[in-house]
Request: fold
Amino acid sequence: MINWIKDIYQTLFRFARFPCEPETVTIGNPDKSSPVLVTCNFDYTVRHLKEYLKKEALDCFLLVVNTKGTNVWCAAAEGVFTTDIVLSHLKVYNVGELVNHKRLILPQLSVAGVKRKELKEHGWEGIYGPVYFTDLKEFLNNGLTKNKDMQALEYGYWERFKMGLSHAVFCTLVCIIPIFLFASDWWIQGIGLVWYFAFSMQLIEHFIPFERLLYKGLALSLPILVLTLTSITDPVLKTQATLGVIALGGYIGYDAQGHSHLGQNQKSGTIFAGMFAFLALVYGGTLFL
Amino acid sequence: MSFVYMKILESRPERYDIGMGLLTLGSLTKIKERIAEHTQSGNKVLDLGCGTGTLGQMCIEKGAQVTGVDANSGMLEVAKRNSPSANYLNISLSNLDEHFSDESFDIILSTLAFSELTHAERVHVLKQIKRILKKEGKVLIGDEIIPKNLFAKCFYYAFRLPMRLLTWLMTQTTTNAIPSFDEEVREAGMQIVNRKPFMLGMFILLEIKK
Reply:
Protein backbone atom coordinates (compact mmCIF):
# COMPACT_ATOMS: atom_id res chain seq x y z
CA MET A 1 0.00 0.00 0.00
CA ILE A 2 1.16 3.53 -0.69
CA ASN A 3 3.04 4.79 2.36
CA TRP A 4 1.17 8.06 2.74
CA ILE A 5 -2.16 6.22 2.98
CA LYS A 6 -0.65 4.08 5.73
CA ASP A 7 0.64 7.24 7.43
CA ILE A 8 -2.86 8.73 7.45
CA TYR A 9 -4.72 5.79 8.94
CA GLN A 10 -1.94 4.95 11.36
CA THR A 11 -2.10 8.55 12.61
CA LEU A 12 -5.90 8.63 12.79
CA PHE A 13 -6.13 5.29 14.59
CA ARG A 14 -2.93 5.73 16.59
CA PHE A 15 -4.61 4.20 19.66
CA ALA A 16 -4.77 0.85 17.85
CA ARG A 17 -1.64 -1.19 17.24
CA PHE A 18 0.06 -1.56 13.89
CA PRO A 19 2.68 -4.28 14.14
CA CYS A 20 5.15 -5.21 11.44
CA GLU A 21 7.20 -8.40 11.39
CA PRO A 22 9.96 -8.44 14.05
CA GLU A 23 13.25 -8.97 12.22
CA THR A 24 16.89 -8.02 11.92
CA VAL A 25 17.24 -5.77 8.90
CA THR A 26 20.47 -5.18 7.02
CA ILE A 27 20.69 -1.58 5.88
CA GLY A 28 23.25 -0.81 3.15
CA ASN A 29 26.46 -2.87 3.36
CA PRO A 30 27.24 -3.30 7.03
CA ASP A 31 30.33 -5.18 8.26
CA LYS A 32 31.22 -6.71 11.60
CA SER A 33 31.97 -3.32 13.15
CA SER A 34 28.76 -1.63 11.96
CA PRO A 35 26.36 -0.18 14.51
CA VAL A 36 23.36 -2.17 15.74
CA LEU A 37 20.26 -0.04 16.16
CA VAL A 38 17.19 -1.14 18.10
CA THR A 39 13.59 -0.10 17.57
CA CYS A 40 10.07 -1.36 18.22
CA ASN A 41 7.83 -3.07 15.63
CA PHE A 42 5.37 -0.18 15.27
CA ASP A 43 4.95 -0.14 11.49
CA TYR A 44 4.88 3.68 11.21
CA THR A 45 8.23 4.04 13.01
CA VAL A 46 9.90 1.17 11.17
CA ARG A 47 8.90 2.39 7.69
CA HIS A 48 10.14 5.93 8.35
CA LEU A 49 13.30 4.81 10.12
CA LYS A 50 14.27 2.43 7.28
CA GLU A 51 13.62 5.20 4.76
CA TYR A 52 15.85 7.61 6.72
CA LEU A 53 18.69 5.12 7.16
CA LYS A 54 18.66 4.27 3.44
CA LYS A 55 18.50 7.93 2.43
CA GLU A 56 21.45 8.81 4.66
CA ALA A 57 23.33 5.70 3.45
CA LEU A 58 24.05 4.54 7.00
CA ASP A 59 25.38 0.98 6.91
CA CYS A 60 24.00 -0.76 9.96
CA PHE A 61 21.87 -3.55 11.40
CA LEU A 62 18.39 -2.62 12.57
CA LEU A 63 16.74 -4.82 15.18
CA VAL A 64 12.95 -4.56 14.98
CA VAL A 65 11.89 -6.08 18.30
CA ASN A 66 8.44 -7.39 19.09
CA THR A 67 6.51 -4.76 21.07
CA LYS A 68 3.19 -5.99 19.61
CA GLY A 69 3.00 -2.97 17.31
CA THR A 70 3.27 -0.34 20.03
CA ASN A 71 5.54 2.70 19.60
CA VAL A 72 8.80 3.03 21.55
CA TRP A 73 7.68 5.45 24.26
CA CYS A 74 4.34 3.79 25.04
CA ALA A 75 5.79 0.28 24.78
CA ALA A 76 8.56 1.14 27.27
CA ALA A 77 6.04 2.66 29.69
CA GLU A 78 3.58 -0.25 29.26
CA GLY A 79 6.28 -2.85 29.94
CA VAL A 80 6.30 -4.42 26.49
CA PHE A 81 9.62 -2.89 25.36
CA THR A 82 11.91 -4.32 28.01
CA THR A 83 15.46 -5.61 28.46
CA ASP A 84 13.98 -9.12 28.37
CA ILE A 85 12.40 -8.50 24.95
CA VAL A 86 15.66 -7.08 23.55
CA LEU A 87 17.71 -9.99 24.92
CA SER A 88 15.16 -12.40 23.48
CA HIS A 89 15.55 -10.80 20.03
CA LEU A 90 19.35 -10.95 20.26
CA LYS A 91 19.14 -14.72 20.86
CA VAL A 92 16.43 -15.62 18.37
CA TYR A 93 18.12 -13.75 15.52
CA ASN A 94 21.74 -14.60 16.53
CA VAL A 95 22.69 -10.93 16.50
CA GLY A 96 25.97 -11.67 18.32
CA GLU A 97 27.22 -13.48 15.20
CA LEU A 98 26.58 -10.51 12.91
CA VAL A 99 29.00 -8.12 14.63
CA ASN A 100 32.31 -8.21 16.48
CA HIS A 101 31.18 -5.83 19.21
CA LYS A 102 28.46 -5.97 21.85
CA ARG A 103 27.06 -2.45 21.52
CA LEU A 104 23.38 -1.65 21.02
CA ILE A 105 22.06 1.78 20.15
CA LEU A 106 18.70 2.13 21.84
CA PRO A 107 16.06 4.83 21.36
CA GLN A 108 16.35 7.34 24.21
CA LEU A 109 12.61 7.01 24.88
CA SER A 110 13.04 3.30 25.64
CA VAL A 111 14.80 4.20 28.90
CA ALA A 112 11.73 3.36 31.03
CA GLY A 113 11.75 -0.24 29.82
CA VAL A 114 15.21 -1.22 28.54
CA LYS A 115 17.82 -1.05 31.30
CA ARG A 116 21.53 -0.66 30.50
CA LYS A 117 22.54 -2.39 33.74
CA GLU A 118 20.54 -5.52 32.89
CA LEU A 119 21.95 -5.57 29.36
CA LYS A 120 25.45 -5.31 30.80
CA GLU A 121 24.80 -8.36 32.99
CA HIS A 122 24.23 -10.26 29.75
CA GLY A 123 27.36 -8.92 28.10
CA TRP A 124 25.80 -6.18 25.99
CA GLU A 125 26.47 -2.45 26.21
CA GLY A 126 23.37 -0.33 25.74
CA ILE A 127 23.78 3.25 24.56
CA TYR A 128 20.75 5.51 24.45
CA GLY A 129 20.69 7.34 21.15
CA PRO A 130 18.91 10.56 20.25
CA VAL A 131 15.21 11.15 20.87
CA TYR A 132 14.56 11.59 17.15
CA PHE A 133 15.99 9.19 14.60
CA THR A 134 16.65 12.12 12.27
CA ASP A 135 19.65 12.91 14.53
CA LEU A 136 21.12 9.42 14.15
CA LYS A 137 23.60 10.34 11.42
CA GLU A 138 25.10 13.15 13.49
CA PHE A 139 25.06 10.95 16.60
CA LEU A 140 26.95 8.15 14.81
CA ASN A 141 29.39 10.56 13.19
CA ASN A 142 30.10 12.23 16.56
CA GLY A 143 31.33 9.00 18.12
CA LEU A 144 27.98 8.14 19.74
CA THR A 145 27.74 11.36 21.70
CA LYS A 146 24.65 13.51 21.99
CA ASN A 147 24.36 17.25 22.19
CA LYS A 148 21.56 18.91 24.17
CA ASP A 149 19.27 19.21 21.15
CA MET A 150 19.41 15.46 20.57
CA GLN A 151 18.22 14.82 24.11
CA ALA A 152 15.30 17.23 24.03
CA LEU A 153 11.80 16.00 23.39
CA GLU A 154 9.94 18.63 21.43
CA TYR A 155 6.19 18.64 21.52
CA GLY A 156 5.65 21.06 18.68
CA TYR A 157 2.40 22.05 17.03
CA TRP A 158 2.68 19.45 14.27
CA GLU A 159 3.00 16.66 16.87
CA ARG A 160 0.18 18.21 18.90
CA PHE A 161 -1.98 18.35 15.78
CA LYS A 162 -1.38 14.66 15.00
CA MET A 163 -2.10 13.70 18.61
CA GLY A 164 -5.26 15.83 18.54
CA LEU A 165 -6.41 14.07 15.37
CA SER A 166 -5.93 10.63 16.89
CA HIS A 167 -7.59 11.65 20.16
CA ALA A 168 -10.54 13.18 18.28
CA VAL A 169 -11.11 9.93 16.36
CA PHE A 170 -10.92 7.87 19.54
CA CYS A 171 -13.23 10.19 21.51
CA THR A 172 -15.71 10.25 18.61
CA LEU A 173 -15.90 6.45 18.74
CA VAL A 174 -16.45 6.58 22.51
CA CYS A 175 -18.94 9.46 22.49
CA ILE A 176 -20.98 8.70 19.39
CA ILE A 177 -23.46 6.37 21.11
CA PRO A 178 -24.07 8.64 24.15
CA ILE A 179 -24.47 11.61 21.76
CA PHE A 180 -27.13 9.78 19.75
CA LEU A 181 -28.81 8.55 22.92
CA PHE A 182 -28.99 11.88 24.73
CA ALA A 183 -28.91 14.46 21.92
CA SER A 184 -29.89 12.80 18.65
CA ASP A 185 -31.17 16.13 17.21
CA TRP A 186 -27.83 17.75 18.01
CA TRP A 187 -25.44 15.02 16.89
CA ILE A 188 -23.51 17.22 14.45
CA GLN A 189 -22.91 19.83 17.17
CA GLY A 190 -22.02 17.02 19.59
CA ILE A 191 -19.37 15.53 17.34
CA GLY A 192 -18.13 19.03 16.50
CA LEU A 193 -17.67 19.62 20.23
CA VAL A 194 -15.73 16.35 20.62
CA TRP A 195 -13.31 17.52 17.92
CA TYR A 196 -13.09 21.02 19.46
CA PHE A 197 -12.18 19.61 22.88
CA ALA A 198 -9.81 16.96 21.53
CA PHE A 199 -7.85 19.47 19.41
CA SER A 200 -7.90 22.22 22.04
CA MET A 201 -6.58 19.79 24.65
CA GLN A 202 -3.51 19.40 22.44
CA LEU A 203 -3.05 22.76 20.75
CA ILE A 204 -3.80 25.31 23.48
CA GLU A 205 -3.94 23.41 26.79
CA HIS A 206 -0.48 24.71 27.81
CA PHE A 207 -1.91 28.24 27.92
CA ILE A 208 -4.58 27.26 30.48
CA PRO A 209 -3.36 27.90 34.03
CA PHE A 210 -4.45 24.62 35.67
CA GLU A 211 -2.30 21.62 36.40
CA ARG A 212 -4.98 18.93 36.16
CA LEU A 213 -5.94 18.12 32.59
CA LEU A 214 -9.47 17.43 33.79
CA TYR A 215 -9.77 21.08 34.88
CA LYS A 216 -8.23 22.25 31.62
CA GLY A 217 -10.95 20.36 29.76
CA LEU A 218 -13.59 22.01 31.94
CA ALA A 219 -12.01 25.42 31.36
CA LEU A 220 -12.19 24.83 27.61
CA SER A 221 -15.93 24.31 27.94
CA LEU A 222 -16.43 27.92 29.18
CA PRO A 223 -16.61 29.65 25.77
CA ILE A 224 -19.01 26.94 24.55
CA LEU A 225 -21.14 27.37 27.66
CA VAL A 226 -21.41 31.11 27.02
CA LEU A 227 -22.52 30.33 23.48
CA THR A 228 -25.01 27.73 24.72
CA LEU A 229 -26.51 29.92 27.40
CA THR A 230 -26.95 32.88 25.05
CA SER A 231 -28.29 30.99 22.04
CA ILE A 232 -30.76 28.51 23.60
CA THR A 233 -33.97 29.92 25.04
CA ASP A 234 -35.78 26.84 26.37
CA PRO A 235 -34.67 26.51 30.05
CA VAL A 236 -34.76 22.69 30.16
CA LEU A 237 -32.83 22.36 26.91
CA LYS A 238 -30.43 25.05 28.12
CA THR A 239 -29.71 23.05 31.30
CA GLN A 240 -29.30 19.77 29.42
CA ALA A 241 -26.99 21.35 26.83
CA THR A 242 -24.90 22.87 29.64
CA LEU A 243 -24.58 19.45 31.29
CA GLY A 244 -23.62 17.86 27.95
CA VAL A 245 -20.91 20.45 27.25
CA ILE A 246 -19.43 20.08 30.77
CA ALA A 247 -19.55 16.27 30.48
CA LEU A 248 -17.72 16.28 27.12
CA GLY A 249 -15.12 18.82 28.28
CA GLY A 250 -14.54 16.89 31.51
CA TYR A 251 -14.28 13.51 29.81
CA ILE A 252 -11.90 14.63 27.07
CA GLY A 253 -9.73 16.55 29.55
CA TYR A 254 -9.58 13.50 31.81
CA ASP A 255 -8.88 11.18 28.89
CA ALA A 256 -5.99 13.37 27.69
CA GLN A 257 -4.08 12.30 30.84
CA GLY A 258 -2.99 9.22 28.91
CA HIS A 259 -0.83 11.32 26.56
CA SER A 260 2.01 11.85 29.01
CA HIS A 261 3.54 10.23 32.08
CA LEU A 262 2.90 13.44 34.06
CA GLY A 263 -0.78 13.28 33.15
CA GLN A 264 -1.05 9.62 34.14
CA ASN A 265 0.05 10.49 37.67
CA GLN A 266 -2.62 13.14 38.22
CA LYS A 267 -5.04 10.74 39.95
CA SER A 268 -8.17 12.65 38.98
CA GLY A 269 -10.35 9.53 38.89
CA THR A 270 -12.36 10.35 42.03
CA ILE A 271 -13.01 13.95 40.96
CA PHE A 272 -14.00 12.71 37.49
CA ALA A 273 -16.39 10.10 38.89
CA GLY A 274 -17.90 12.62 41.34
CA MET A 275 -18.37 15.16 38.58
CA PHE A 276 -20.12 12.64 36.33
CA ALA A 277 -22.36 11.44 39.16
CA PHE A 278 -23.39 15.05 39.85
CA LEU A 279 -24.06 15.73 36.14
CA ALA A 280 -26.12 12.53 35.85
CA LEU A 281 -28.15 13.50 38.91
CA VAL A 282 -28.93 16.98 37.58
CA TYR A 283 -29.74 15.51 34.14
CA GLY A 284 -32.13 13.06 35.82
CA GLY A 285 -33.78 16.01 37.55
CA THR A 286 -34.34 17.83 34.26
CA LEU A 287 -36.34 14.86 32.96
CA PHE A 288 -39.06 15.68 35.52
CA LEU A 289 -39.36 19.30 34.39
CA MET B 1 -2.85 7.27 24.29
CA SER B 2 -6.32 7.70 25.68
CA PHE B 3 -6.25 7.40 29.48
CA VAL B 4 -9.57 5.54 29.58
CA TYR B 5 -8.33 3.11 26.91
CA MET B 6 -5.09 2.67 28.86
CA LYS B 7 -7.09 1.68 31.94
CA ILE B 8 -9.11 -0.76 29.83
CA LEU B 9 -5.84 -2.31 28.60
CA GLU B 10 -4.53 -2.59 32.16
CA SER B 11 -7.59 -4.61 33.16
CA ARG B 12 -7.10 -6.96 30.19
CA PRO B 13 -5.76 -9.94 32.20
CA GLU B 14 -8.98 -10.01 34.25
CA ARG B 15 -11.05 -10.40 31.06
CA TYR B 16 -8.63 -12.67 29.18
CA ASP B 17 -10.24 -16.03 30.01
CA ILE B 18 -13.74 -14.87 29.08
CA GLY B 19 -12.52 -13.41 25.78
CA MET B 20 -10.48 -16.45 24.80
CA GLY B 21 -13.32 -18.78 25.82
CA LEU B 22 -15.54 -16.83 23.45
CA LEU B 23 -13.00 -16.86 20.61
CA THR B 24 -12.64 -20.63 20.83
CA LEU B 25 -16.35 -21.28 21.60
CA GLY B 26 -15.35 -23.25 24.68
CA SER B 27 -12.77 -25.42 22.87
CA LEU B 28 -9.95 -23.89 24.90
CA THR B 29 -11.35 -25.38 28.11
CA LYS B 30 -11.68 -28.79 26.43
CA ILE B 31 -8.09 -28.56 25.15
CA LYS B 32 -6.87 -27.67 28.64
CA GLU B 33 -8.79 -30.59 30.17
CA ARG B 34 -7.26 -32.96 27.60
CA ILE B 35 -3.80 -31.62 28.36
CA ALA B 36 -4.27 -31.93 32.12
CA GLU B 37 -5.28 -35.60 31.65
CA HIS B 38 -1.68 -36.31 30.57
CA THR B 39 -0.21 -35.19 33.88
CA GLN B 40 0.34 -37.51 36.83
CA SER B 41 1.18 -37.05 40.45
CA GLY B 42 4.81 -36.03 40.94
CA ASN B 43 5.31 -34.83 37.33
CA LYS B 44 7.41 -31.72 36.91
CA VAL B 45 5.39 -29.53 34.55
CA LEU B 46 6.36 -26.34 32.74
CA ASP B 47 3.47 -24.18 31.49
CA LEU B 48 4.76 -21.88 28.74
CA GLY B 49 2.78 -18.66 28.34
CA CYS B 50 0.78 -19.69 31.41
CA GLY B 51 -1.46 -16.59 31.22
CA THR B 52 -3.99 -16.63 34.04
CA GLY B 53 -2.79 -20.00 35.39
CA THR B 54 -5.98 -22.01 34.81
CA LEU B 55 -4.21 -24.90 33.04
CA GLY B 56 -1.48 -24.97 35.70
CA GLN B 57 -4.14 -25.28 38.40
CA MET B 58 -5.75 -28.27 36.59
CA CYS B 59 -2.33 -30.01 36.59
CA ILE B 60 -1.73 -29.18 40.26
CA GLU B 61 -5.06 -30.82 41.07
CA LYS B 62 -3.64 -33.99 39.45
CA GLY B 63 -0.67 -33.78 41.80
CA ALA B 64 1.90 -32.19 39.46
CA GLN B 65 4.48 -29.58 40.40
CA VAL B 66 3.93 -26.64 38.06
CA THR B 67 6.17 -23.78 36.94
CA GLY B 68 4.43 -21.09 34.90
CA VAL B 69 6.26 -18.74 32.54
CA ASP B 70 4.76 -15.61 31.02
CA ALA B 71 6.15 -12.33 29.68
CA ASN B 72 3.08 -10.43 30.86
CA SER B 73 3.38 -9.44 34.52
CA GLY B 74 -0.33 -8.52 34.68
CA MET B 75 -1.28 -12.05 33.63
CA LEU B 76 1.01 -13.50 36.28
CA GLU B 77 -0.69 -11.43 38.97
CA VAL B 78 -3.99 -13.09 38.04
CA ALA B 79 -2.28 -16.50 37.78
CA LYS B 80 -0.92 -16.16 41.33
CA ARG B 81 -4.48 -15.70 42.54
CA ASN B 82 -5.90 -18.57 40.45
CA SER B 83 -3.13 -21.02 41.22
CA PRO B 84 -1.10 -19.86 44.23
CA SER B 85 0.89 -23.07 44.70
CA ALA B 86 2.63 -22.92 41.29
CA ASN B 87 6.01 -21.24 40.75
CA TYR B 88 6.13 -18.35 38.31
CA LEU B 89 8.74 -16.65 36.16
CA ASN B 90 8.13 -13.33 34.39
CA ILE B 91 10.25 -13.86 31.24
CA SER B 92 9.85 -14.15 27.46
CA LEU B 93 9.62 -17.69 26.16
CA SER B 94 12.80 -17.02 24.15
CA ASN B 95 14.79 -16.63 27.37
CA LEU B 96 14.19 -20.14 28.74
CA ASP B 97 17.88 -21.02 28.28
CA GLU B 98 18.93 -18.81 31.19
CA HIS B 99 16.53 -20.29 33.70
CA PHE B 100 16.20 -24.04 33.18
CA SER B 101 18.80 -26.78 33.03
CA ASP B 102 18.86 -29.72 30.58
CA GLU B 103 16.18 -32.42 30.92
CA SER B 104 14.43 -30.82 33.89
CA PHE B 105 10.73 -31.31 33.04
CA ASP B 106 8.48 -34.35 32.47
CA ILE B 107 5.80 -32.39 30.64
CA ILE B 108 5.92 -29.02 28.87
CA LEU B 109 2.57 -27.42 28.07
CA SER B 110 1.40 -24.43 26.14
CA THR B 111 -1.99 -23.09 25.04
CA LEU B 112 -2.43 -20.15 22.65
CA ALA B 113 1.11 -18.94 23.33
CA PHE B 114 2.89 -20.10 20.18
CA SER B 115 0.45 -18.21 17.99
CA GLU B 116 1.73 -14.98 19.58
CA LEU B 117 5.28 -15.72 18.44
CA THR B 118 6.97 -15.24 15.08
CA HIS B 119 8.27 -18.22 13.07
CA ALA B 120 11.87 -17.57 14.20
CA GLU B 121 10.78 -17.29 17.84
CA ARG B 122 8.74 -20.52 17.65
CA VAL B 123 11.70 -22.49 16.29
CA HIS B 124 13.99 -21.00 18.96
CA VAL B 125 11.54 -21.90 21.75
CA LEU B 126 10.98 -25.43 20.39
CA LYS B 127 14.77 -25.99 20.41
CA GLN B 128 14.89 -24.87 24.04
CA ILE B 129 11.96 -27.15 24.86
CA LYS B 130 13.88 -30.08 23.38
CA ARG B 131 16.83 -29.26 25.64
CA ILE B 132 14.90 -28.94 28.91
CA LEU B 133 12.50 -31.85 28.32
CA LYS B 134 13.36 -35.19 29.95
CA LYS B 135 14.20 -38.08 27.61
CA GLU B 136 10.79 -39.77 27.93
CA GLY B 137 8.94 -36.50 28.50
CA LYS B 138 6.23 -35.03 26.29
CA VAL B 139 5.23 -31.66 24.96
CA LEU B 140 1.55 -30.74 24.66
CA ILE B 141 0.71 -27.69 22.57
CA GLY B 142 -2.84 -26.45 22.03
CA ASP B 143 -3.05 -23.63 19.53
CA GLU B 144 -4.78 -22.04 16.60
CA ILE B 145 -3.90 -23.21 13.09
CA ILE B 146 -5.19 -22.52 9.58
CA PRO B 147 -7.16 -25.65 8.55
CA LYS B 148 -5.99 -27.56 5.47
CA ASN B 149 -9.41 -28.74 4.27
CA LEU B 150 -10.93 -26.26 1.74
CA PHE B 151 -14.40 -26.18 3.36
CA ALA B 152 -12.91 -25.71 6.82
CA LYS B 153 -10.60 -23.02 5.45
CA CYS B 154 -13.59 -21.08 3.99
CA PHE B 155 -15.45 -21.45 7.29
CA TYR B 156 -12.33 -20.37 9.15
CA TYR B 157 -12.03 -17.07 7.27
CA ALA B 158 -15.80 -16.36 7.45
CA PHE B 159 -16.09 -17.19 11.14
CA ARG B 160 -12.80 -15.88 12.46
CA LEU B 161 -13.07 -12.26 11.38
CA PRO B 162 -16.18 -11.33 13.44
CA MET B 163 -14.99 -13.50 16.34
CA ARG B 164 -11.58 -11.85 16.34
CA LEU B 165 -13.18 -8.43 16.35
CA LEU B 166 -15.44 -9.37 19.24
CA THR B 167 -12.53 -10.87 21.16
CA TRP B 168 -10.37 -7.83 20.48
CA LEU B 169 -13.12 -5.56 21.81
CA MET B 170 -13.25 -7.64 24.99
CA THR B 171 -9.59 -8.33 25.60
CA GLN B 172 -7.63 -5.99 23.27
CA THR B 173 -5.70 -9.02 22.12
CA THR B 174 -6.11 -11.84 19.67
CA THR B 175 -4.23 -14.84 18.31
CA ASN B 176 -2.64 -15.40 14.92
CA ALA B 177 -3.13 -18.82 13.39
CA ILE B 178 0.04 -20.77 12.70
CA PRO B 179 0.30 -21.92 9.04
CA SER B 180 2.08 -25.21 9.86
CA PHE B 181 3.62 -26.60 13.02
CA ASP B 182 5.11 -29.69 11.37
CA GLU B 183 8.07 -28.00 9.74
CA GLU B 184 8.91 -26.01 12.86
CA VAL B 185 8.76 -29.08 15.11
CA ARG B 186 11.00 -30.96 12.64
CA GLU B 187 13.42 -28.01 12.49
CA ALA B 188 13.72 -28.20 16.28
CA GLY B 189 14.60 -31.89 16.05
CA MET B 190 11.40 -33.31 17.56
CA GLN B 191 8.38 -35.17 16.18
CA ILE B 192 4.62 -34.90 16.45
CA VAL B 193 3.28 -38.23 17.73
CA ASN B 194 -0.38 -37.37 18.07
CA ARG B 195 -2.73 -34.64 16.89
CA LYS B 196 -6.31 -33.92 17.91
CA PRO B 197 -8.25 -31.26 15.99
CA PHE B 198 -10.93 -29.06 17.57
CA MET B 199 -13.51 -26.77 15.95
CA LEU B 200 -13.24 -28.07 12.35
CA GLY B 201 -9.49 -28.12 12.63
CA MET B 202 -9.14 -24.46 13.56
CA PHE B 203 -7.53 -25.45 16.85
CA ILE B 204 -5.24 -28.38 17.40
CA LEU B 205 -3.77 -30.25 20.30
CA LEU B 206 -0.34 -31.66 19.48
CA GLU B 207 1.60 -34.25 21.41
CA ILE B 208 5.28 -33.93 20.64
CA LYS B 209 8.21 -36.08 21.69
CA LYS B 210 11.97 -35.88 21.38
